[in-house]
Amino acid sequence: MQEIGQFLPLILIFAIMYFLLIRPQQKKMKEHQAMVAAVRRGDQIVTQGGLIGKVSKVKDDNEVEVELAENVKVRVVKSTIASVTSKTEPAKSE
């Protein structure tokens, strides 16, 4: 019984660390992955490098083409998108 009492503070510290650090980080990562998966043509984005541009083409599952200025396009890995500043409305199907 005394052995369990010695490990109880360690177990409590791990539980607190899980709920304060690990779980919120996992939730944030899932939200980021969902945001990146939902990026489509016309969305205004900010990359982790600080570049602001408009998505001109979604190349494949891992890459998008971003227009930074008129006739200036760069290919960006989707995971480096930090945020989507303005979403476009989906095309209406008639």
Overview of this structure, please?
- With 94 residues, the protein is α+β, with helices and mostly antiparallel strands.
- It has a single domain (2-86), classed as SH3 type barrels (Roll), CATH 2.30.30.
- The chain contains 1 helix and 5 strands.
- It has one helix at residues 2-37, and strands spanning 44-47, 52-60, 63-69, 72-77, 81-86.
- Strands 4-3-2-1-5 form a 5-stranded antiparallel beta sheet, covered by helices on one side.
- A hairpin with a 4-residue loop joins strand 1 (44-47) and strand 2 (52-60).
- The radius of gyration is 21 Å and the shape is rod-shaped.
- The N and C termini lie far apart (70 Å).
- The model has no long low-confidence stretch (mean pLDDT 89).
- Belongs to the YajC family.
- It is found in: Cell membrane.
- InterPro entries: Preprotein_translocase_YajC (IPR003849).
- Keywords: Cell membrane, Membrane, Protein transport, Translocation, Transmembrane, Transmembrane helix, Transport.
- It comes from Shimia marina.
